[in-house]
Every structure is written in structure tokens, then in C-alpha cells.
Amino acid sequence: MTVPICLVENQNQRLKVNQQAVEILDKISQPVVVVAIVGLYRTGKSYLMNCLAGQNNGFPLGSTVQSETKGIWMWCIPHPSKPNHTLVLLDTEGLGDVEKGDTKNDSWIFALAVLLSSTFVYNSMGTINHQALEQLHYVTELTELIRAKSSPRPDGVEDSTEFVGFFPDFIWAVRDFTLELKLNGHLITEDEYLENAVKLIPGKNLKAQISNQPRECIRNFFPNRKCFVFDRPSSDKKLLAHIEDVREYELDPNFQEQTKKFCSYIFTNAKTKTLREGIIVNGNRLGTLVETYVDTINSGAVPCLENAVTTLAQRENSAAMQKAADHYSEQMAQRARLPTDTLQELLDVHMACEKEAIAVFMEHCFKDENQEFQKMLVEIVKKKKEDFLLQNEEASVKYSWDKLNHLSKALMESISAGTFFVPGGYKLYIETKKKIEWDYSQVPRKGVKANEVLQSFLQSQAPIENSILQSDKALTNAEKAIAVERAKKEAAEKELELLRQKQMEQQQQEEAQDRSLEENKGQLKEKLEKERENYIRELERIMEHKLKVREDLLNEGFRKKSEEMDAEINYLKNIVYKSTNDNTSLISQALDKFAIEITSILSAPAKLLGHIVKGVSSLFKKD
To answer: What pLDDT is attached to residue 64?
Structure first.
């Protein structure tokens, strides 16, 4: 993108997703790093975002007291330091714009920025003081505007306990900072400045409780916090009014250095956007999330991560299933040379392509509840395999018939001319027929129906052969009887050979079915175990953060608040314990259930196979 585009429009106090922007996101298959910036209007948010984009112009800056940005604007650029990643910059309209009247949309814009970003930048002016924290009251409203789960917990633990599992990293950008970074006479870092600012104020009075609300929310919801302070860009008001046109050397050197430091940190440390359990978000998924959240807000409901992930999973898993099915079809068409010499040859190609198709599905699917989409994939691949088997049979019949028709042309002409209806004609006929069978056996890659086609041909010749035999006056009745018995024996041997081939092919089909079952189970097991590991890792990270918050509260003298966190921590410990110790049996149960269901799918009789065989005999009789 060369210029930003509005992603979420804010018109008449109603949010609306710009479909043109969603179409841009749909084309981005790369993982995205999403950086959103929020803050009061006219505080220079857009300038920082333009710096991240490496441009002076882009997001509108404006130079009046009116808010320039409306809604949420998006700029997608190749990530400057992460190959195969896209950096998505989200610039939000200024909070607290007096022209709005209703501030509810400010809260929704703030909540959307939190939900969509992997790094959340809060931009403010001056210092981080009581007033600045009061202006950040939006963070205290998040418990009313966002839900992690679709239904309340039976144990009474707050839903916001899990916010830390999917909330972005938090950066506070303090603009026009004029203070010296000192605390109690000692120099401190920017991060220490932020941590000191969000320490709780002692006291049980109402004023202290209200002041502590944003502090507690920042500490509880955002485990990874960072602070950057910026000097005033210039003391020249005229330059500041048109900062997008100002050359770099005209800006304050400290401000230049601070801006470069900020951008470098974002490029190096801003994480890829992920959902619960490590689900990586690409452009397409981000677009779906935007639409899901805005639709929910406009319906009057509260955006719920669990519901959003479910909606996303339905769409993604359907696409993953189609992608896997297409991969199977494409690879089979490329690798299978029809007709194959044997059934096993085609089954080997099928199993290799099926393995790849399952891997494609596993790579792109997530939250496939009860493996519904994988089961559908099993059914689709089975049907496609049957189609290839049928095509293979048809190709074999056609090729075998073409060769046999060519080899037997002289025989058929001799029969029509009566060449064999003379004394000694039967011996001549048998020699000619044996020569045809020998030549036919030397033809390579006739396919799986070669023997059946030959058998049908020989059966169609049986009445003519018997007629030639009976009319041959050079043979005695005893010799004719012996010839009849020999022909019957040969026919029976060929029927037995054909039966053995069918039995072997049936066994090969069953073995392929078993391998398909094991391949599906094996890849599913690996997927479920990986999901469990991600889930446990996420819970442990949440619990680690909660323990640190509790320890900090205790060290700061807030024993009661520290003890109030015990319920949350015990709840998390219990979930981690169950996930670690019980999930193995849960995975086994899921695999056993899945095995029963796909065995039923795989063992269902094919509807098309074999029909072609019935028509083979009549094919030769007509000719």
C-alpha cells in the first residue's frame, strides 16, 4: 500500500467496516504485526505512525484543534526487519474530541485497537501524572467492552482473568516531555518511570480507589509494558503546524533520536499478532476479526474473543479443507500416469498425496471442534480417490482394448474369411490365438483391467473356437473331447488367476484404508498435542504474570489486594494441572472417537467402482 485507507469508519456514532480495506487484508497471506496507536486528539499520534511507515506523509496530521483522523485507518507495508511478515499500522481517531458529543464510540475505538493489535501504543502529552491516568479511563472500561469467554464461569472467577492471555504489549509514548528522569534523586529509565507511575496509591478512601482503577488495569491486563518519552519536536510553532513538511534537520536532535529509538524498538520487538493458544493471524484472519468485532458492536453485544475465534475457525477450516482437497487433486493429476501397471502403484501415489493433503489441512486449520472438517476432508479424498480408481480402470480398459483389437485384427479377418473352417483349421486357430495372447502379454502398462479384458475377449471367442473345433474333420471325436476339456481347464485357470488378482487388490485396498486411518490419526494426534502444549504454555504465562502482580502488591503493602488474587491463581493452577495430567486421556478419547467415525467413512462401499467391468464382455461381443 502506498497510502493508508480507512479500515473502520465512524459515521454518525456508528462503526462501519470498509470492504475495500478488508479486500486488501484478504490478499495478505503473511503473518501480520499489528501496531495500533490511541490517545487524545491533536497529540501527534499520526506523526509517529508515519515514521513507522518511513514516510513524512500518509496518515493525515492536521494543524488545527479539530481531530483529523476519524475511525481507524490502516497502512499495510512489508515489515522492515521480519522477512515474510506484513506490518499493519492502525491509526485511531483522537479520543475526547469535543465535537463528538457521545463518548461511547471512543470506548469502542479503544477496545477495537486492543483487540486487533499485537502492540498497543498509548500516546499522551506532558507527563504520566494523575490527570494522564484519569484520561486513560478507557482501560477501566475494557471489562465491560470485551469478553474472553462466551459464557460466565461457574466458579465465579472474573472473565477478565484471561485478558492477559491475548492482550497486546503496551507502550506508553509521552510527548513533549520536559521533566528530568529522576526519582528520589536517582536517574531512572523510561520504563522505571512508567512502573513508578502505575504503582497503587495507598489508602482505602474513594478517591484512592478511583485513582487506582486505571493503574490496576494496566498492571493486570498488560504484562509487557514499555515507555518512551519524546522532547518537543521544535520550539517553532510554525514548523509544528506543518510538521509533515519539515525536513529532518529542522527538528530537535533529541526528538529525532527518540523517534528513531521508538521505531527501532517496534521493528525489532513488536510481536506477530496471535490469538489464544498461539494461533497466528495473517491479513485474511485480521479482516475477519475486524468484521466480526464491528458486527458484534453494532448488534449491541460485547465482542467476545471465544466467539470471534469460533467464527474465524469455521471460515478458516472450510478454506483449509478445500485447499487440502485441491492439493490432493492437483498432485494426483500430476503424479499418476494412467493407466497404472498395478493397483498398488496408484494406491502408493494416492497415499503420498493424501498424506500431503492432510498436512496442508493441519497447517491451516485450528479449533476443528470434534474434527468435523477433517472428517469431511476424509470423505472428499475418499470420493476423489474412487474417481481416480475409476479413471484408471477406464484408461486400462480402453488401452487394453485398443491393443487387443490391433493384435487380433488378422484373426478376426481370418475367421470372417473362413480360413479356419478347414481340416487342420483348429490347430491353426489355437496357434494364432496363443500368439495374440503372448504378444498381448508383452505390451507394457496395460493397467489393472488387462487380465479382465483378455478374459472377456477369450470368452467372446469361445463359441467360435468350439465351432471351428467341431468342424475340423482332421480331428477324431476323442481328440475333440480332449480339446474341449483342455479349453475348459484353461478358462478355469484364467478365472482363478483373475479371482486371485481381485483378492489381492481387495487386500491392497484394505491396507490402504488402514494406512489412511493411521495417517489421519497420527497427524491429528500431533496437532492436538501441539495445541495442548500451546494452551498449557499460555496458562503458565498468565499464571506467572498473576504471581508477579500478587508479589508486587504484597511488596507495596497491599496485602488484602494480594490475597484477593488467590482465587484467580488457584483457578489457573487447577486448569494447568488438569490440562497437564488429564489431557492425555482426553486426546486418546478424541482419537478413538475419530477413528470409529472415519473407519465408517472409509469402509463405505464405493458407488462407481466395478460398473465398468460389467460392460467389458458386451464391448467385445458387439465387435
So the answer is: 36
